[in-house]
């Protein structure tokens, strides 16, 4: 009997470790200032480019590839139609990497999507201001926080940023991609970062492809960068990330 009980205790320990990982403070990824805080993205397609990943790594293998090459956190697309994502990717990666901070990215419009994110093991969720009424944005934000999830509130212009700041969020993401034209303009980040208080972590999203751009964004005041397409266009995305981080100290 003792052996059986001890085996059950071992299983309980594993379950508790997995459960506790869901309460990781996503904001901790910004604490170390010795190198850029990169949120490396796992996505197999995009609305602007279609299929983008030329390799054969699974989501779990991609997560390992990123984490062993300097990623502070993972952004995982779960939206199936435009990005070829799957909610199961979150569960698979969480099971393999209990202590890895994971941001779930999807078009979140309903509280059940946030509950699902929490159950499957995400630590943070994306809330896109452009797709939500102020009332729904507030509802989803409050609900996410109640589940110990960190909302990353995404904006594209000054008006959306004003709405986002009313939430008193911990993290704001500035997306450089125009949702209508899908064109990318890094100037969006340079303009909006000036309006974000120092008490809010700022993440630059979309269009970052060089070490020089990474350094320019950090210098401008960003706490982290979310990079996807640049990395996922390589069969070994982690190696591209590693090269960018290696060049960072010498970038002009």
Automatic annotation (TrEMBL):
Gene Ontology terms describing biological process: L-tryptophan biosynthetic process
Enzyme class, first EC level, given as a word: lyase
Pfam families noted in UniProt: IGPS (PF00218)
Keyword set includes Lyase: yes
EC number per UniProt: 4.1.1.48
Signal peptide interval: none
Keyword Transport listed: no
Catalytic activity annotation: 1-(2-carboxyphenylamino)-1-deoxy-D-ribulose 5-phosphate + H(+) = (1S,2R)-1-C-(indol-3-yl)glycerol 3-phosphate + CO2 + H2O
Keywords associated with the record: Amino-acid biosynthesis, Aromatic amino acid biosynthesis, Decarboxylase, Lyase, Membrane, Transmembrane, Transmembrane helix, Tryptophan biosynthesis
Residue ranges crossing the lipid bilayer per the database entry: 119-137
Domain called Indole-3-glycerol phosphate synthase: residue spans: 19-238
Source superkingdom: Bacteria
Entry GO MF terms: indole-3-glycerol-phosphate synthase activity; phosphoribosylanthranilate isomerase activity
Known pathway: Amino-acid biosynthesis; L-tryptophan biosynthesis; L-tryptophan from chorismate: step 4/5
Protein's name in the database: indole-3-glycerol-phosphate synthase
Source organism of this protein record: Candidatus Aquirickettsiella gammari
């Amino acid at each position: 009997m003792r052996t059986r009980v001890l085996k059950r205790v071992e299983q309980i320990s594993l379950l508790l470790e997995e459960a506790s990982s869901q309460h990781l403070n996503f904001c901790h990824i910004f604490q170390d200032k010795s190198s850029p805080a990169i949120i490396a993205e796992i996505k197999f397609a995009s609305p602007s480019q279609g299929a983008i990943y030329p390799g054969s790594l699974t989501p779990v293998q991609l997560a390992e590839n990123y984490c062993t090459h300097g990623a502070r956190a993972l952004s995982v697309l779960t939206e199936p139609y435009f990005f070829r994502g799957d909610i199961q990717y979150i569960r698979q990666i969480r099971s393999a990497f209990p202590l890895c901070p994971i941001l779930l990215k999807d078009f979140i419009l309903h509280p059940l999507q946030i509950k699902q994110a929490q159950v499957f093991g995400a630590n943070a969720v994306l809330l896109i201001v452009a797709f939500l009424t102020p009332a729904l944005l507030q509802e989803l934000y409050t609900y996410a926080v109640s589940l110990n999830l960190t909302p990353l509130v995404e904006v594209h212009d000054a008006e959306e940023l004003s709405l986002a700041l009313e939430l008193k969020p911990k993290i704001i993401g500035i997306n450089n991609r125009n949702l209508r034209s899908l064109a990318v303009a890094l100037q969006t980040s340079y303009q909006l970062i000036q309006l974000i208080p120092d008490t809010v972590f700022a993440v630059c999203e979309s269009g970052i492809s060089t070490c020089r751009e990474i350094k320019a964004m950090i210098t401008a005041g960003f706490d982290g960068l979310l990079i996807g397409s640049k990395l996922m266009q390589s069969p070994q995305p982690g190696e591209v990330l590693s090269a960018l981080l290696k060049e960072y100290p010498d970038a002009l």
